[in-house]
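Session log. Operator J.P. requested a structure for one protein chain; no other inputs attached. Running the standard single-chain path with token output.
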Amino acid sequence: MTAYLECRALRFRYEDMMMCFDLAVDRASCVAVIGPSGAGKSTLLALIGGFEQADGGSVSVDGKEITAAPAAQRPVTTLFQDNNLFAHLTASQNVGLGLHPGLRLTDAQRRDVEQALEQVGLAGFGNRRPAQLSGGERQRVAVARCLVRRRPILLLDEPFGALGPAMRQEMLDLIDALRHQHGLTVLMVTHDPADAARIADRTAFVAEGQVVLTDATKDILHSDLPEIRDYLGR
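Structure written below.
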């Protein structure tokens, strides 16, 4: 069976490292991407999202190649560690930017914004500005902005790394609930294997610009491969 999201020999040169990624992700699954710093985890997401252009190979979604497509035309939305909220805009306006950069929204789109804020637990917070929100609440606004874009693939590039353990787990559980509710396909870069264990069906281990192994998360976290054992400190 063909994977929903697939990278084949996806090449990218960064300084003196030639990266080459092969990865297959099933529809509506959550795959964690772990590995040492500088291994290429964020680069892989940037290539899928269209923020970097590959030197070769392909990215396809549901059998359609998107390798050359501009980022805005890909069925993908990305949540970064820096939530990229505008301080002078309200939570509703920041979410609305996912629908129109000039915030010229229809009544139906305004309702979509309200619904997205409700789904992330921020009903009634629409008029607050980022300074009036906690770190976790700001990330919830960023998640709501991803939701209104209605893209089937959600890329998470360590978005919860700055949060404390309890808030981090809460945000991971929110992502997992939204994935099941909306049928999202999630690819999550994380430096914490506990994140993968909490919500990821499968995990891809990346080292030196390659996906070394992809398997069920529990099997990756107990793998006997030396690279993985060293990374996990076992």
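Operator note: The two ends are 35 Å apart (CA to CA).
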